[in-house]
Amino acid sequence: MFAQVLATEFLKLRRSKVTWLTLLGLSLGPLGIALMMWIVRAPGRAARFGLLGTKANLAGLVATWPVYLSMLTLIVGIGGMLLLSFIVAYVFGREYADGTAKNLLALPVARHWIVLSKLIVAAVWWIVLVVAVVAEAFVIGALLALPGFSTALAIGAVHDALLAAGISFLLAPMVAWVAVLGRGYMPPLGFALGMLAVGDVLSHTGWARWFPWSVVPLFIGAVGQRVTALPATSYIVVALTFLAGIAATMASVRWTDNAQ
Amino acid sequence: MSAETTIATRSLTKRYGDVLAVDGVELDVRRGEIYGFLGRNGAGKTTTIRMLLGLIRPDRGEVEVLGTRIGASSREVFSHVGYLVESATAYPNLTVRENLDIQRRLTRAPHAAVEEAIEAMRLGEFAARRAGVLSLGNKQRLSLARALLHRPDVLVLDEPANALDPAGIVEVRELLRSLSSEHGVTVFMSSHILGEVAHLADRIGIVSSGRLVEEIDREQLRGRERSHVEIGVSDPVRAATALGQAGFARIERDGEGLRVFDARDRVPEMTRALVSAGLDVTGIAPVREDLESYFLRLTGDGE
């Protein structure tokens, strides 16, 4: 029966425009970095590109694989975290926005199966997105013929991107919970943005490793000094956030009045 | 709860802040009957239906459907229940057929059930169309098809005739009647339109301000049609006394006039009694109160 529930969730995801928009959104990231690399390799071209060129030069960028891949990690880490929040907000929030949540709750299907299948669908789509974008980044990097490539560098970049993506997913159930409580898309998106902002503030106070939404930015070096290895406490904090998010979402779907 | 009872509620109560939405409702819906749950907008019909389906929890009381107490963990009983709550909704990006296939998978119905439901609700022409572009009437048909798809023993339908054209209303009425009489399906349907319920329901519960104010069968409802005579008279107080002395038992003041019940055939006698008492009669008219007026009076909106 769970397989049937899962199949319905995949059908909904596959037929949604939002799904393909998220792929488009994330795939623009490597293209953007590649454009900057292309510009900084020739200052003459930079001038013709106006502000973008000036900004790229001012940032002190150098067009090498290490720089290119560190920027990719930033995109998958921060941009991906927001995009994943958007996916989860959509997968859960659409049932309320479309008024279909009530059709799912008086069925011969346990309500927690529906929560679980939605999280699995979001996870699968998230993995597809990250893998597709990392692969795209390597293809574009190769086409640009950037200097400084090594296998160890590539493995390190893939590891970092996947770890950042994995940590981001552990925070997703909390976003799902806010979508269920807020009955729509906007509250979970607001929540995700708010948490990132709080994470940014906390990163300057030394509390980053303790706050779930600071862990990815800390790991990829988006705030403060990049850490080479995350402390165990950070893993524990995000794991607990994951479990609490799942429990809260399941409890809300089960016990909250569905009066909408 | 007897073996014949399909839906039972005991002291069902739900409060939203200061508003008592449902107040101690007791229902016993029998197997195979069509039960009309009649009330004005905001009377508590949808809240009651949501509690029947476990979508919201009662503050007090309980619900049993097919002998199972309904709660957040109720599952198997819903293999036998089809429902439509409030507005017709569907996944807008999915076609009619895909929307129904989702219901088929979630209710473990056979593959053929999708085409049968499409046929039953005459949605064949729209089966490959996205639900988002359907008219309101066809969305309602899709929601009804969704409710019927797994051949439930109990149908809980909130305003099933919403958005349907007159031909659609008749079709749905005939379909529900045949499901009830030929397949023993119990239908619990809410409506705010008395005529719709009076045409179809075997029994009618009238709800007002969250309370079940009357429960009657269709024939009894017809018998509740009342008639009275409206009288315009110079002195209503003296006129009421004169009519009372002349043997008219049910007299009500109505502004500057009177209403005399059960007196439709006694107009000449009434006139003589008033004139003999020296009163000026300015008007006299027999009035037949129809079912709508009866309903409005019961639900507190009548004159």
Distinctive features:
heterodimer, A: mainly alpha, 11 helices, 79% helix, globular, B: 303 residues, alpha/beta, Rossmann fold, Alpha-Beta Plaits, 2 domains, 6-stranded mixed beta sheet, 4-stranded antiparallel beta sheet
Question: What does this entry show, briefly?
Answer:
The complex is a heterodimer of chains A (260) and B (303). Chain A has eleven helices and no strands. By secondary structure, chain A is mainly α.
Structural summary, described in words:
The complex is a heterodimer of chains A (260) and B (303). By secondary structure, chain A is an all-alpha fold. Chain A has one domain (2-29, 63-255). Chain A contains eleven helices and no strands. The relative contact order of chain A is 0.13. By secondary structure, chain B is α/β, with parallel strands linked by helices. Chain B folds into two domains: 5-222, P-loop containing nucleotide triphosphate hydrolases (Rossmann fold); 225-298, 2-Layer Sandwich (Alpha-Beta Plaits). Helix content of chain B is 33%, strand content 30%. Chain B contains ten helices and 14 strands. Chain B has helices at residues 45-52, 96-107, 112-120, 136-148, 166-183, 194-200, 218-223, 236-245, 267-276, 291-298; strands spanning 5-16, 19-30, 34-39, 60-65, 68-69, 81-84, 154-158, 186-191, 203-208, 211-217, 226-233, 251-254, 257-261, 281-289. Chain B has a six-stranded mixed β-sheet, with helices on both faces. A four-stranded antiparallel β-sheet of chain B has the order 2-1-4-5, with helices on one face. Chain B has a four-stranded antiparallel β-sheet with strand order 12-13-11-14. In chain B, helix 2 packs across helix 3 (112-120). Chain B is elongated. The mean pLDDT of chain B is 89. Classes of the chains: A mainly alpha (260), B alpha/beta (303).
